[in-house]
Amino acid sequence: KPDLTAALRDIRSQYEAMAASNVQETEEWYKSKFADLTDAAARHAEALRVAKQEANEYRRQLQALTCDLEALRGSNESLERQLRELEERYALETGGYQDTVVRLEEDIRSLKEEMAQHLQDYQDLLNVKLALDIEIATYRKLLEGEE
């Protein structure tokens, strides 16, 4: 009669040994995966912390640059307003100078006309003087001829 109980005990002990080794392998695999995941979580947590710090730094830089931009916009508006005021003032001054130039050109033209008239009068007087000098010379010759 075969010893079934002993064979069953043998098979049972083999299955229990295999189950124990499977449990041990599964626990080791679980522990290694858990350790890997813990390391990965730690790395990701560190990367997240670094990313948050960078994001905060970028926010601070953005705020600083935004403040600078607003200040520069204010300065730009102020300078543009000053430029408009200067352009208006110089446009008025230029208009005044142009009026003065036109008036002076008119004065020059009238003075040239007056000078031309005086020159004409002088020429006329000179011609009269020359005619009178010739006439005087003629009368002297006549008077000298009578003597």
TrEMBL record:
Highest taxon listed in the record's lineage: Eukaryota
Residues forming coiled coils: 41-128
Entry keyword annotation includes RNA-binding: no
GO cellular component, as recorded: cell projection; cytoplasm; intermediate filament
Coiled coil recorded as keyword: yes
GO terms under biological process: intermediate filament organization; regulation of chaperone-mediated autophagy
GO molecular function, one term: structural constituent of cytoskeleton
Alphabetical UniProt keywords: Coiled coil, Intermediate filament
Domain IF rod: 1-147
PROSITE patterns (alphabetical): IF_ROD_1, IF_ROD_2
Family: Belongs to the intermediate filament family.
The protein, known as: Glial fibrillary acidic protein
Taxonomic source organism: Horornis vulcanius
